[in-house]
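Notes, p. 3: input format for complexes.
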Amino acid sequence: MAKILYQLPKGTRDILPEEQPYWQYVEEAIRRVVQLYGYEKLDLPIFEETALFQRGVGEGTDIVEKEMYTFLDKGGTSITLRPEFTAGVMRSYLQHGLSNLPKPVKVWSFGPVFRYERPQAGRFRQHTQFNVEALGEQDPALDLEVMSVAWHLFEELGFKNLSFQINSIGCQKCRPKYLDKLVNYYERYKSDICDDCKKRLKKNPLRVLDCKNPGCQPVIEGAPPIVDSLCSECRTHFETLKGYLEDLNRPYSLNHRLVRGLDYYTKTVFEVWAQGIGAQNAVCGGGRYDGLAEVLGGPPTPGVGFASGLERIVLLLKQQGIILPHGNKPKVYFASRGKEAKRQIVRLLSDSRKNGIEGVMSFGERSFKAQLREADRRSVEYTLILGEEEIAQKGVLVKTMKGGTQEFILWDDLLSFLKTKGLGR
Ligand code: HAM
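Output follows (425 residues plus histidyl-adenosine monophosphate):
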């Protein structure tokens, strides 16, 4: 057998037809939920100028330092395939003067993002995000709303045992003082921590709390929690949000170690975790980013949002054994015996499709037996059989696959017959 020459690039995947019902199920749930919460669609280019992400996501982050797909285009401009949506959403908001719209401006996006990561279960170099942003408002009720979009979606999908992790990482006023405290605390443990943490202490100290290295865990456990160092504005914001969560009976875990891997966050950060979807178990992550607009040269514009990875959602659907309500298989198979019969099924199938009946026919020179086998494998509800005898009587033999009964139906009556069976419009 010939050896195929090409395989998928590492860290990417084909979503084969058999998996598509899962994606359709999730995309339909997304559309229902965004509609319910009043979010409008915003489509962005898949690539942007590199500097947008360097500034927006932050120079010291793993994404910018190690993971971006960056290249010079033919005009010499440095371009990056988007590693996330938020910076692009803010760029678009500022560029198109969306601040003139009633605030908050609430948008959602959907599409591929690219990160050169070490591929593992649930972690890919191209993944698909459902992204939600609400811009122009400081209100903690908006943090709650954004979190509720995620919550509602996951409930709608039928997920069980998810856990909401929340934290506040303060603002430009209170965070520097906390970082001093954190670095001071780490001074005592310099010889116990990993090399990455040593670097993080210099470049991005908050990220030491996120370290997965076993040796660093006891040090992290004893680190001062940032929520104890919040300024009164950040504290009130966080307390109000927690109050709302409690009012709605939304269980959450206060996670002092949750700091997120992107630099733009202020105040609220959150993730939704699920067990068993691979090394990375966050099915969704987000937070508030009140300083991002200014970093991009815009006027102060608060914002809050999240993104959720579709591949992880689909993994979780499978892992939790969630049965999908529908697949989109054709309902009718047209089998023919002989050339003239084929002409007639081409015509009948065309009429059926015009009337919204999902049907397929046999192609090529297949024996009649092989056609019936194909109908079986395609799990259709009805097989329509047309041979010389049926042509002579201007009709078809309709075989009901479940039960195997057959009845003769005239061509003229076929559409209305199929409609009485619930097919078509
Ligand atoms: P993020 O946590 O980097 O946040 O990514 C959001 C979600 O995308 C993750 O929770 C996960 O479900 C999925 N994800 C991330 N990386 C991968 C990967 N390599 N393979 C598969 N799935 C992945 C952001 O991107 C922020 N922009 C979210 C946000 C929006 N914050 C505010 N607004």
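The mean pLDDT is 95.
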